[in-house]
């Protein structure tokens, strides 16, 4: 799905996410004039998208990995660490961690006072998970910091964060830092305009609603037309 952030609409729905398909679309619409002035493209961490953008716009359009996908990747690492620890614990302690996923992955300000107390107890009893949760908040604070106004500043802050967390010796953080390193320049581009793929996720929910109401659709062309009719008009 191709989103026009400026006008808050769906531009196109492609049949697959293969690089060749995306590249053909971008080149066609760049030549038509529709995408001739594109300066920045937000995407998730899939190399095919980034390469298609680079080739279509001759490296002149910035590729931005938005914070949603970065934090989602970290959340997955944190949750995997929780599951791994839970499996290794004796039955009584395992029961304490069971059902605590919401507490670990929810932003603290969205927890109730009782939930914050429960999380504080778990942090005292499971220090490795506490460290991961604390580093999650430190990473989130970087993305929220209004003083960071350029990709270079953002990259320096992210590099400093990685230097700190690598010293903790936690496998989940080591794996995440490797991902962060691989995409660092494109993640730092978030600080250009702080564009987010949040609207894309909203449109995705709309697409799923279309499929739900129709009990599924086997004809891609019909599905595409329904999506463009519902979400293709400029806001």
Task: Describe the secondary-structure layout.
Blueprint lengths: L1 E3 L4 E4 L6 H14 L7 E4 L3 H10 L5 E4 L1 H22 L2 H7 L3 H5 L7 H13 L1 H18 L6 H16 L4 H12 L1 H5 L1 H4 L4 H16 L6 H12 L4
Parallel strand pairs: 3-4
Antiparallel strand pairs: 1-2
Commentary on this structure:
The structure is a single chain. This protein is mainly α and 235 residues long. The chain folds into two domains: 2-66 and 195-231, no CATH class; 67-183. 66% of the residues lie in helices and 6% in strands. It contains 13 helices and four strands. It has helices at 19-32, 47-56, 67-88, 91-97, 101-105, 113-125, 127-144, 151-166, 171-182, 184-188, 190-193, 198-213, 220-231, and strands spanning 2-4, 9-12, 40-43, 62-65. Strands 1-2 form a two-stranded antiparallel ribbon. A two-stranded parallel ribbon has the order 3-4. Helix 1 (19-32) runs parallel beside helix 2 (47-56). It is globular and about 60 Å long. The relative contact order is 0.14. The model has no long low-confidence stretch (mean pLDDT 91).
Give me some keywords for this one.
single chain, mainly alpha, two-stranded parallel sheet, 66% helix, 6% strand, globular
The gist of it:
This protein has helices at 19-32, 47-56, 67-88, 91-97, 101-105, 113-125, 127-144, 151-166, 171-182, 184-188, 190-193, 198-213, 220-231, and strands at 2-4, 9-12, 40-43, 62-65. The chain is mainly α and 235 residues long.
